[in-house]
């Protein structure tokens, strides 16, 4: 079996029930239809800091110590993220991370969840794109993140394992509510970013005989009025989408906990070695 190149797409605050029947989410719905869709239940508190820390490091809230978005008292330095673990699993692995929420990728201030690995950056084996959507707006910054990702996919040093993050939907949910027209408009913008990435990997697969696996995940949902952090079904709701250019998928457990996702991704990379 071949070793797939993997892109983990993080869509902050996206409620699948509001995307599943929406014309704004045609790309996401096609990935679910042509691949695999399953629900996932997030742990409380349903905040981005704890949620992404569990999803990316393969550890529980109690282990990584991220209990809110302040990251005070975190123990992330003890727990390498999935990109770091993929590299140490095979030190020829190129990794790429791009996000507009600084705690995920920026060493300045909170976090980061994604380790910097400066030696690998200097060697051209690790790329980190950090932007600040909280300051400059996530509509603009998400578009930049998509452009940087497409540039990486077109480069001669294409990454083997990537994490790409979009926050426009979550931002709209906070400001306007999850049932708002603005939430659907943000969903359409993010869906278009996902479409560009899917099309780029499909072209690469066809031109270079590569196998690519796209995995899409959210860190939490929203209450109808907007907001999250509590234990309601709407806030704990998440999902996993998987889509492969090979047209087939490996068997995953019927139920996946947030801290189990990174291990499953690493297992995908390990097959065929």
From TrEMBL:
Annotated InterPro entries: Alkaline_phosphatase_core_sf (IPR017850), Phosphodiest/P_Trfase (IPR002591)
SUPFAM superfamilies: Alkaline phosphatase-like
Segments crossing the lipid bilayer: none
Gene3D superfamilies listed in its UniProt record: Alkaline Phosphatase, subunit A (3.40.720.10)
Database matches in Pfam families: Phosphodiest
Descriptive protein name: Alkaline phosphatase family protein
Organism: Arthrobacter horti
């Amino acid at each position: 079996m071949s070793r797939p190149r993997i892109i983990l797409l993080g869509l902050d605050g996206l409620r699948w029930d509001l995307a599943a029947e929406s014309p704004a989410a045609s790309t996401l719905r096609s990935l679910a239809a042509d691949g695999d869709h399953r629900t996932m239940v997030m742990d409380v508190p349903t905040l981005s800091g704890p949620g992404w820390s569990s999803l990316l490091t393969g550890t529980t809230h109690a282990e990584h110590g991220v209990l809110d978005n302040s990251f005070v008292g975190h123990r992330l330095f003890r727990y390498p993220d999935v990109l770091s673990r993929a590299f140490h699993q095979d030190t020829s692995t190129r990794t790429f991370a791009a996000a507009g929420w600084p705690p995920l990728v920026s060493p300045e201030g909170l976090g980061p969840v994604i380790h910097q690995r400066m030696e690998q950056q200097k060697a051209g084996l690790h790329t980190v794109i950090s932007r600040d959507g909280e300051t400059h707006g996530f509509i603009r910054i998400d578009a930049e993140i998509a452009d940087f990702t497409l540039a990486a996919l077109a480069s001669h040093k294409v990454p083997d394992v990537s994490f790409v993050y979009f926050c426009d939907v979550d931002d709209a949910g906070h400001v306007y509510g999850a049932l708002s027209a603005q939430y659907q408009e943000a969903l359409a913008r993010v869906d278009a970013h996902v479409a560009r990435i899917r099309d780029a990997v499909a072209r690469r697969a066809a031109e270079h005989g590569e196998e690519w696996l796209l995995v899409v995940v959210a860190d939490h949902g929203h209450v109808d009025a907007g907001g999250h952090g509590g234990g309601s079904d709407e806030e704990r709701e998440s999902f996993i989408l998987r889509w492969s250019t090979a047209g087939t998928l490996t068997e995953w457990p019927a139920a996946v906990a947030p801290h189990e996702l990174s291990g499953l991704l690493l297992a995908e990379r390990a097959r065929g070695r």
